[in-house]
Amino acid sequence: MLQSKKWRQYWTFYAFLSPWLIIFIFLGLFPLLYGLYLSFTNFTGFNMNHLKFVGLSNYNTVFQDSESMYALGRTLLVTAINVPLSLGIGLLLAILLNQKIKGLSWYRTAFYMPSVVPIISTVLMWKFIFAGDGLLNALFTRFNLPAVNWLSYDYATTSLIVMLLWGAGGSLLVNLAGLKGIPADLYEAAEIDGANPVRKFFTVTLPLMTHILFFNLIMGIIGSLQIYIQPILLTGQKLLDPPIKPNYLYLVHAFQQIFAFQRFGYGLALMWVLFVAILLLTVLIFYSSRYWVYYETEQEV
Q1: Residue 271: its pLDDT value, please?
Q2: Which of 8, 174, 255, 266 is deepest in the core (most CB within 10 A)?
């Protein structure tokens, strides 16, 4: 009787799990592994009957192609600027909105709203702002400042980063939850010791927020390395047209190879190189976290 009940529990569990498992296998795991296989072939999208195994040729091309290395360098540059600034702005907004002020819920909604606006709407709005006769240059003209071509070669990356930082409030809810979890007793003890607001931030707030910053850092790097649609819509003309050179990022290059030139095998190799790079960066950050992330409970090393 007990054995029969135990088996019924097993079958019930796997019955509820099966829809997700089936979708994961056929729409997640299988395409992933099949794409890995195709990255070792000469697949062009129309030669399934004449596939040839080319070994590591596509992967060697990734590192020998000056375009892919340039795109990788631009992506790392955007990531190195965007991620720290987003972390800092998100934490600063959370601290400001953790105060007891009138209309607090409205401010929280206003700062979080940009992160839920669709990407296409966001890019079109900022493209209007950065246009030659757009809102930003109109403001410059009003103050007798020279107009700037924000979507030109010299300012394209700056415009892209500014647009990305507009959504820095996306980490607001997570940061607020972390701030709410800091015991008030610690701030009171710091005040008794004569700590000013700056010292309380560095000795109490920041150490107890490192696990939140760690999570936001991982998610920020993963998201920033996979930027694709923003540079195309901001400085490109059509969806399959490359953006202006400074905004020619790695994922843009990969999609160009696949959909514009039908170099599917090479494009998939580019994607897998990015996947391995993200994996290695994530492992490196996880390893380094033991030296700078503070947990209230003891963690196993």
Answers
A1: 94
A2: 266
